[in-house]
Amino acid sequence: MSNSERERVKELKKELNAVLLAHYYQESEIQDIADFVGDSLALAQKAAKTDADVIVFSGVHFMAETAKILNPDKPVLLPDLAAGCSLADDCPADKFREFVQAHPDHTVVTYVNCSAEVKALSDILCTSSNAVKVIESIPKDKPIIFAPDQHLGKYLIKKTGRDMLLWNGSCMVHETFSEKKLIQLKVRYPEAKIVAHPECPENILELADHVGSTSSLIQYVSQSSDKQFVVVTESGILHKMQNENPDKEFIPAPPESGCACNECPYMKLNTMEKLIQCMENQSPQVHVASEIIERALVPLNRMLSIN
Ligand code: 13P
Ligand code: SF4
């Protein structure tokens, strides 16, 4: 990023009295200029507390929608409205409504990686940071639906011992990692610890020394006395890990093919250029219908109160 781009973002933030929130999977330049970089839970918590007039959200659409649900009267800018999420796409609201209606006795726990409409159909939301706590808050005799990520769902069944009815969505990035190549890396770097996001399939998680949300993975590698880590999640996270731990080595886990599939194509739609343009034009903005906001706010606030 050029100095002039950095200066322009600073100027625009001041002019708009805006806060710039960014996810760990955003490109490094954007992380470096953001007011706050975090995982999806921390970003929602920041959005809930901000006194800025405008929220500029550098992340994906469902995250910006969460910020809008919490701040219905403020403009929430997203550099590229096409920055979606394969998990959210795997759970269309009409199909999910039918599924929920077919199981009226179930408590519906939904991972925030879903549309505002799907949030509005849920009893309580969770992120990968607080999912265990959220599930443990539900009485033991209550059956649970968990959506949309089947891999996170299976991981939570193991962790909590609760039998849950799972929606079968998945993340295209976390499904891309190769078990065979990960085992080869383990042999090549026997000292390295493997850290993985719980959106990865079970066979990958079984090889991991630590499983957790993006912030949990960063915390683990920073607190560990080990010096080498294989990182099994979106590669944007390496920027923060390396910055915080210049003396440690981070090896991105290899995808199945020789592609760059461990980069989230949606996250990477947000570029510096689009960030500046959206602040200059105060567009594109994320819009959510007021009746959806009203209904989605209930499960969202339940989640936030658990933290
Ligand atoms: P975190 O909540 O761990 O930041 O994860 C968000 C996400 O989209 C993972 O793919
Ligand atoms: Fe969605 Fe996966 Fe991208 Fe996260 S990494 S935003 S779950 S597609």
Task: Tell me what you see in this structure.
The chain is α/β, with parallel strands linked by helices. It has 15 helices and twelve strands. The strands form three sheets. Strands 2-1-3-4 form a four-stranded parallel beta sheet. The protein has a four-stranded parallel beta sheet with strand order 6-5-7-8. A four-stranded parallel beta sheet has the order 10-9-11-12, with helices on one face. The chain is globular and about 50 Å long. The structure holds 1,3-dihydroxyacetonephosphate (13P) and iron/sulfur cluster.
Secondary structure layout plus pairing:
Elements: H1 3-16, E1 18-23, H2 28-33, E2 36-38, H3 40-49, E3 54-58, H4 61-70, E4 76-77, H5 86-89, H6 93-101, E5 107-111, H7 116-120, E6 124-126, H8 131-136, E7 144-147, H9 150-160, E8 164-166, H10 179-188, E9 193-196, H11 202-205, E10 210-211, H12 214-223, E11 228-232, H13 237-244, E12 249-252, H14 272-281, H15 290-306
Parallel strand pairs: 1-2, 1-3, 3-4, 5-6, 5-7, 7-8, 9-10, 9-11, 11-12
Helix pairs in contact: 1-14, 3-4, 4-15, 12-13
Bound molecules: 1,3-dihydroxyacetonephosphate (13P) and iron/sulfur cluster.
Iron/sulfur cluster is lined by residues 60, 85-87, 113, 171-173, 199, 234, 264, 266-267.
